[in-house]
Amino acid sequence: MRIVIKLGTSTLAHKTGRINIRRVEKLCKVMSDLKNAGNEIILVSSGAIGMGVGKLSLSGKPSDIPTKQAAAAVGQCELMYTYDKLFSEYNHTVAQILITGADIEHTVRRANFENTVRRLLELGAIPILNENDTIATEEIVIGDNDTLGAIVATTFNADLLIILSDIDGLYTADPHKDKNAVLLHSVYEITDEIVAMTGGAGSELGTGGMHTKISAAKIATEGGTDMVIANGSEPEILYDIVEGKDVGTRFYSGKAD
Ligand code: GLU
User: Fold this and answer.
1) How far is the CA of 116 from the centre of ligand 1 (A)?
2) Residue 231: inside a domain
3) What is the pTM of this model?
4) What pLDDT sits at residue 173?
5) Would 251 be classed as within a structural domain?
6) Quick one: which of 101, 131, 185, 251 could link to 217 by a disulfide (CB 3.0–4.6 Å)?
7) Structural domain harbouring 89
8) How far apart are the CA of 61 and the centre of ligand 1, in A?
9) Could you give the 3-state DSSP secondary structure of residue 4?
10) Res. 201: pLDDT tops 50
11) Is-contact 52 17, C-beta < 8 A?
């Protein structure tokens, strides 16, 4: 299978912004194993701004764009250093790709991006993508990595897009506020009712909330890729998702029908 895995800041970093070493080590181990089993992995990783906040000892997520960009520039190094180190332990090679909304919309740049990723996959490397936050200002921004994950999954005809976050999946209501909220395991159609179930809330250091995940699910499923939202706190959940077990929320593309 070709699998796109999107890791959110809340999965990769502690609330301080500093890297969650235990979690990231396990994630890289499981992803390496999935690759060893014959799957192709494309990673879409957030965490640059969060880790920059931690490394620069800033008091919280910055609100102004230049500080966010500076934090991203620092944190992106930390992210790639960590992935390179951990995937190397399992004999895998990583590649960094940073893009913006303008790159996706530009025919030639988009073609170059696609060619590079395809070649990396042929060469057996793991492409790791993030938005190029130092370039992307409001006008050319993709916005959040859930959307980027969906664009990547459909562009490269992935079999599955997995979004790991700090929530178990899509609930019928906000589980933090409503004790009757029920986790939905399967979604076959993204109706207005489904959209209404999403609040705007995201974690303190990340960008997307459930709303951006549902938009991503729409892009992915319309493009023929199933998408799963699951809790990344236990990285071994990736095995269950790939095996098609009932974890998290799965949005069906209808392709398998
Ligand atoms: N590009 C941002 C980062 O790496 C993340 C955007 C998102 O959280 O979706 O920090």
Assistant:
1) 22
2) yes
3) 0.93
4) 83
5) no
6) 251
7) 2-245
8) 12
9) strand
10) no
11) yes
Residue pLDDT, tens place only, 233-257: 999 999 999 999 999 999 999 765 5
- As a whole number of angstroms, the distance between CA 250 and CA 244 comes to 9
Q: Across residues 98-126, what is the average pLDDT?
A: 96
* Mutational pocket test of ligand 1: of 5, 6, 7, 9, the residue with most ligand atoms within 8 Å of the beta carbon: 9
Burial letters for 89-113: b for 16+ Cβ neighbours within 10 Å, e otherwise?
eeebebbebbbbbbbbeeeeebeeb
The Å distance, Cα 143 to ligand 1 centre, comes to 8
The Å distance, Cα 257 to ligand 1 centre, comes to 34
Residue type, 74: V
Q: Cβ(184)–Cβ(209) under 8 Å?
A: no
39 within some domain: yes
| pLDDT, the chain, mean | 91
Domain of residue 215, CATH code: 3.40.1160.10
Domain count, the chain: 1
Give φ, ψ of 212 to 5 degrees.
Answer: -70, -30
Atom of ligand 1 nearest to the CA of 144: 9
Instruction: Give the pLDDT of residue 256.
Output: 59
